[in-house]
Amino acid sequence: MKIARVIVDVPTSQTNRLFDYTIPDKYQDVLTVGMRVIVPFGPRKIMGFVLDITSESKLNKLKNVQDVLDLTPVLTKELLDVGKWLAESTLCFYVSAFQAMLPQVLKAKYDKELWLLAEVEELSPQLESLFAGRGVIPYEEIQEHNVSYSAIQKAVKEGILEIHYQVNSKETKKTETYITNALEEMELEEKYATMPPQAKKQRQIIAFFLEHPGEIKQKELLHRLSTTRASLKPLLDKGVLQTIQREVYRDPYQDREYQPTTPFPLTEEQAAAIDPIHTSISNHTHETFLLHGVTGSGKTEVYLQSIQHVLDKGQEAIVLVPEIALTPQMVERFKGRFGSRVAVLHSALSKGEKFDEWRKVQRKEVQVVVGARSAIFAPFENLGIVIIDEEHESSYKQEDYPRYHARDVAIYRAKHHTCPVVLGSATPTLESYARAQKGVYTLLSLPKRMNNASMPQVERIDMREELHAGNRSMFSRDLFEKMEDRLQKGEQTVLFLNRRGYSTFVMCRDCGHVMECPHCDIALTYHRKSERLKCHYCSYEEAMPTECPSCESDSIRYFGTGTQKIEESLQQLLPEARIIRMDVDTTRRKGSHERLLTKFGNQEADILLGTQMIAKGLDFANVTLVGVLAADAMLHLPDFRSAEKTFQLLTQVSGRAGRHTLPGEVVIQSYTPEHYSIDLASQYDYEAFFLKEMKVRKMFQYPPYYFLTLITVSHGNHLYTMDVTQKMTQFLKEQLSEQSVVLGPSPSPLARIKDRYRYQTMIKYKNEPGLHKAMNRLFQLYEDQINQNDLQISVDFQPYQMM
Ligand SMILES: Nc1ncnc2c1ncn2[C@@H]1O[C@H](COP(=O)(O)OP(=O)(O)OP(=O)(O)O)[C@@H](O)[C@H]1O
Ligand SMILES: [Zn+2]
Ligand SMILES: [Zn+2]
């Protein structure tokens, strides 16, 4: 007897284990590890993943596997292992981890059909009677007609059949008609010879197939021979030719032409950087490289040539790019070099499109995947390199279950495949750079821009002085003059405002003093309702001051302006300027992001005003001025990484100006321009910033010196939420060792979301072997309240968003 061990799709702690089911005879040869099945579970039938197939079970009365959903495994053995590791290291349910690795289409219940792909000469009698002359049948008929699944599976492998998911998606075109010769060459020649001479077109068509046996798209054939369907029809009717319906991928990039590119001869620096990567690829060893290269230094070319090396070895490559930077320009660079060997995975694709791209990987039809975070789970089996571009981007961390970081998954997978990982950035995270310093990662540097182009000149403006000089607007006099100048010259400006319209810290506009927690070195969060300032790392709080504790001015207030407001006042100041605003509001619709950028690229606007989303990947020759309106907004986020994020963002934004022949200028407006992150960013001095920031992290016990774990509790009742967090904090203090610091409870910076109150507790530690155990105990303790009382407790072992 064969038994399937299954993880069922019920994400609760009681069901987070293997369940055994007997495999009925009809599935015995078909079912393998990594497939999805339907199994009876209590009164219901639910989906599950087969993790193991054995011959014995500890239980003696087992139920049967009800149905098999896949005929080829959707998760490879390696990915099943990745899923287990992911679940255990991030504390999520196994099933959630497996689901996270699959395209959406495979998660929902879609109707399935069986498609007959080619008109094979002889279908097996079984299939013949199953299809009974039809080209498409509902999947359930396999079971109804008692056809063996292994026969179906074999036909799928041979390319005769295909399982088709009915994804409802308007924009998809599913099949295309192909024409092929139905006769052998000899017969075809005979037909040609006996065809009356006046049937000119038909003779031409036959001649074509004599010269090019095999299939061709009907459209292409008609186009090539400049003829119509009317002249094809008699040949089809007489059985000389036949039609085939081929499925076409819903490829969003298919209408685009990609200029094929060839590798550049590398510069000396690039050659020096790529050499160790090539060695690792050739020697088949695992190593993690940190490629630190300034903006415009040619990192992408290093990626491209490394991938070429991997492909030459017959292996595969994954390239991760931040969602925001996954622009058509980026895709073009990979498609231009590797053409149809590239699949692209990102969230702007429809479900159907994503699924198609994923299947190209599963079927080994592509060797390169370029995608956002979840592309790290591409089901390649012969991986030769993983590249993470802009490795400092916080979007590589998933903020929902499973809370994984793509960098960790990349390294885990690369160890399995013994291949290199390349992390690239102009501003690496402190964590990665520190690891490179310790020799855990290998540091590679590209310190210069291509062609020795200079970095744009950065000017810092002190907004306190503007105020003192009587300028109450959001634009300094300098920035305003420069914008006017660009407008006159017909050059373009990019204006950058961090975040969308809201911020939470309190600052004195006279002297720039920011209210900070005396214990945590982060800005205090203003709570409007209670008129109090709170630290959300520890539980410190104080009243909102009426005058500045530093200079006694009464211009102390909370800080924040939205893009919309800025657009309005900008339009007033420069009525003739054409402005494009890009923020969450104007880019909600699919494709609008791209449309706005194209418009700006075509110089249909003078000023691009936007949030984070314009900081990356923009490469417009005519942009000669970049303005950062409020550098402080990011500097005083209630987040210990705020200085690092400020440095990264300013460096990225500055990198957008003067990338081509026209020289660029950058203006940074701030109330604290002397802050080291702003000062050093304006000098492009990463090294100095790293050293300074590391000192701060050490002093206040933050990563990379210490680890953090953030636990967030939420519930609809305020007192109850506070109470649970309080007790939980106490419980953790008792469970954990002396050296761990448990901070809290304190309100989350986003203290209420969708009517749920949120409190948090933070743990700082250097080495806490009992942490996972304590967390599991914690969940046991609150299990009933989580299941019955709608209490939510979430744990993040590597928090990036401290909200
Ligand atoms: N060896 C080379 N010879 C000539 N041109 C090159 C070479 N390598 C790269 N380039 C060109 O230099 C420009 C900058 O390179 P690239 O965009 O790869 O830099 P980057 O470091 O990835 O930049 P960023 O981090 O700002 O995105 C590109 O237009 C690229 O085509
Ligand atoms: Zn504090
Ligand atoms: Zn002051």
Automatic annotation (TrEMBL):
* EC number assigned by the record: 5.6.2.4
One of the entry's Gene Ontology molecular-function terms is:
hydrolase activity
Which residue ranges does the record assign to the Helicase ATP-binding domain?
280-446
Name the source's superkingdom. Bacteria
Q: Is this entry keyworded Cytoplasm?
A: no
**Catalytic reaction annotation:** Couples ATP hydrolysis with the unwinding of duplex DNA by translocating in the 3'-5' direction; ATP + H2O = ADP + phosphate + H(+)
Q: Does the keyword DNA-binding apply?
A: yes
Query: What does the entry list as the binding residues for Zn(2+) 1?
Result: C508, C511, C548, C551
Q: Which cofactor does it need?
A: Zn(2+)
What SMART domains does this protein map onto?
DEXDc, HELICc
Pfam families in the record: DEAD (PF00270), Helicase_C (PF00271), PriA_3primeBD (PF17764), PriA_C (PF18074), Zn_ribbon_PriA (PF18319)
Q: What top-level class of enzyme does the UniProt entry assign?
A: isomerase
Q: How is the cofactor bound?
A: Binds 2 zinc ions per subunit.
Alphabetically ordered keywords of this record: ATP-binding, DNA replication, DNA-binding, Helicase, Hydrolase, Isomerase, Metal-binding, Nucleotide-binding, Primosome, Zinc
Ranges for domain Helicase C-terminal come to 543-697
Positions binding Zn(2+) 2 in this chain are: C517, C520, C535, C538
Quaternary structure, from the entry: Component of the replication restart primosome.
Its family? Belongs to the helicase family. PriA subfamily.
Task: Please give the function described in this protein's UniProt entry.
Answer: Initiates the restart of stalled replication forks, which reloads the replicative helicase on sites other than the origin of replication. Recognizes and binds to abandoned replication forks and remodels them to uncover a helicase loading site. Promotes assembly of the primosome at these replication forks.
Name the HAMAP family on file: PriA
Protein known as: Replication restart protein PriA
Species lineage = Bacteria, Bacillati, Bacillota, Bacilli, Bacillales
Instruction: Name the gene.
Output: priA
